[in-house]
Design goal:
Elements (H helix, E strand, L loop, with lengths): L10 H12 L7 H4 L7 H25 L7 H9 L1 H30 L5 H4 L1 H20 L2 H25 L19 H13 L18 H30 L2 H4 L5 H10 L3 H33 L17 H18 L4 H34 L4 H25 L1 H12 L2 H13 L2 H7 L8
Length: about 450
Amino acid sequence: MTQNSSNKLGLWTLTSLVVGNMIGSGIFLIPAAMASYGAIGLLGWLFSAVGAFFIAKIFSNMSRLDPGVTGGPYAYTRAGLGDFAAFLVAWGYCLGTCCACTATVVSFISAMSSFFPVLASNSVAAVITGLVTIWFITWINSRGVAISGKFQLVTTILKLIPLALVAVGGLFFIRTANFHPFNLSGKPAFDAITTTAAMTMFAFVGIECASIPAGSVEDSAKTVSRATIIGCLIATTVYILGSFSVMGIIPSTMLGKSATPYADAGVVIYGPAARYIVSGGVAIAAFGALNGWVLVLGQLPMGIAKDKLFPGIFARTNKKGVPAIGMTISCIIISLLMIMNFTKGLVDQFRFLLLLATLGILVPYLLSAASYVVMSAKKTHLAKGGLIAVMALGLGGFLYSLWEVVGIGQQSVFDGFLFLMAGVPFYVWVAYKKASSSPATGEAAGVTTKREA
């Protein structure tokens, strides 16, 4: 189905998809989680930011090498490394994103409990609220990619307001004594930086989102590239400046015990009313991020299904050109995960899903970085200087992603490996089905991720 320009994403709506998916509710909790490490956690942010820019530049460049393809990391990995690697990317990314959405819903419910305390004490009320939220956002996304994009732009602006108020206003209330001692963890500096970088990496997940709905983007070769870099810059500035202010305002002993670090900092800066403003910002952040991820969970499986590596039902679209059935299936999975896990404490659930989602998305980063080198060699005639630049960028992105995988921890990596391998039997089945189709059908399927003229 050919989409007209009124139902496509422009630069700022696409940038809001990147920023909105990167800046979820987790950013409001990370300063407290990192408090036991001290100010050295700011170096963790810095290392994550540098690595994230490697990844952002890789996706930016690949969007120019192969413009207009739907699927982002999956499509790029398939172009460079073939079907099996691409399937592992798709499997890990889709399920990891479902886990991330579940964590986001939990954070939304937690934020709303500031206004409706019953949500913190009554699990039935919490689950009902979560389900209503999930399916309301699914309905919004079913109305068309342009509508969900505009909704994303509005929620992104609204979530940035409280973060900016604390990040900028907090600079006038910082006490340098709160940054000492620099390393509270008792671990060697490198180990502390590695751990905090792994924690903060979750905040950069979503950097690839501009490339996923590329088939629904105006002038995708330029727009996807620009939106990726601009979105990364905005999010990184908010992250580092906000964490610096919060850590400078609240002593680490108090920060580690805080369930609402940004709200606590806001109270110091602006008074008691700021707690509700920041809590509202947390809720909007989670709500907006969930909207963006649901959009992704429709677009990515659609691109995979068109290549016959997912069942064809994921490629079916409604009259608005939206893969509503595939989106619905993804949201059923999110709903089940939320119900199954809601008996745990909110913090334990958030941490488990955070690690699982991060690993599920780091593997696509690893393989996308490797594919970038292969794609560049295939599609362009590189001079010696150009080849060195491509190799440096690809190797930098690959090593950074690998370093982050190590930082997640041995047990989480093992669980994640099982998580990926569980998809292999499914791949064998779809590969058999694809091989059984006629050569003409298979040939056509190889180009269906391309945006129709």
